UniProtKB/TrEMBL annotation:
SUPFAM superfamilies associated with the record: Pseudouridine synthase (SSF55120)
Record's protein name: tRNA pseudouridine synthase B
Chemical reaction(s) catalysed: uridine(55) in tRNA = pseudouridine(55) in tRNA
GO biological process per UniProt: mRNA pseudouridine synthesis; tRNA pseudouridine synthesis
Free-text function comment from the UniProt entry: Responsible for synthesis of pseudouridine from uracil-55 in the psi GC loop of transfer RNAs.
GO molecular function: RNA binding; tRNA pseudouridine(55) synthase activity
Keyword Lipid biosynthesis: no
Gene name of the encoded protein: truB
Domain of life the protein comes from: Bacteria
Amino acid sequence: MVDLILNINKEKSISSFDVIRFLRRKTGERRMGFQGTLDVFAEGVLPVFTGSYTKIIPYIYSGVKDYLFEIQLGLKTDTLDITGNITEKKDFPKNLQKEELEILIRKNFTDGYIQRVPEYSAVKINGAVAYKLARKGISQDMPSKEVKIFDVKILSSDGGIVTGKISVSSGFYVRQFANDLGESLKTYAIVTKLQRTKSGDFSIEESIKMDEADEKRAVNLKKLLEKRMKIIYMNEEMTKDLRNGKEIPNTSNIQGLCVAFDSDERDCIILSGEGEALKVKRIIK
């Protein structure tokens, strides 16, 4: 089994699952997953986990994601991005200033922004993947949820092309934001370019290309986890007890999740501090 954490810089024009297929061939490891799907037309940070490390995905921080975007005003497509079929065209406000757009976004989208999940998304509706239904022309009543914009900066606004950078919560759809921004401007809007520059603790500066993926370029598990969780070390007896599902004393009075390693950092177990005991949440390896 090949246990790796890889900060992949996904290229444009391939899907997140294409990345997985490539890495399966390259590493020989079948057990693989990623955190946060990137659309085919998008590029940037895609954290990939292989082997035993797929079990760590639910415990990896993914609360903030940063994007660079380009939005075209005046167009509407079925996918809300440049890859879709154009369904509508409309005039758009001319001479929009960057400052005007930032004020508009902060007024309409930064407090209590309820965002509809796009029909072209990987969300399941009654057991079926939404985008597969959409491709068949089957319209669905898509769910909505509150998302957050932590920061936004408009970099340019010229001739209906708006570029900027945005920091958002997990589950935020930049395509839907573009559509909603267009509506607030009484026009249409689609995303034409999108790059994810940060996903939780994974950044574009530290990312690698798919063909560079190997053990030497992998993210260190301990260094990643210790950014968000307390690290403790297990002796042989503690390791045996935890692997048998037993509790161990919470001598450090840890509240919430922590991660336990053996002295060689080969064994890794996620624990939960509950009162005077540390209980096993997940045995990673």
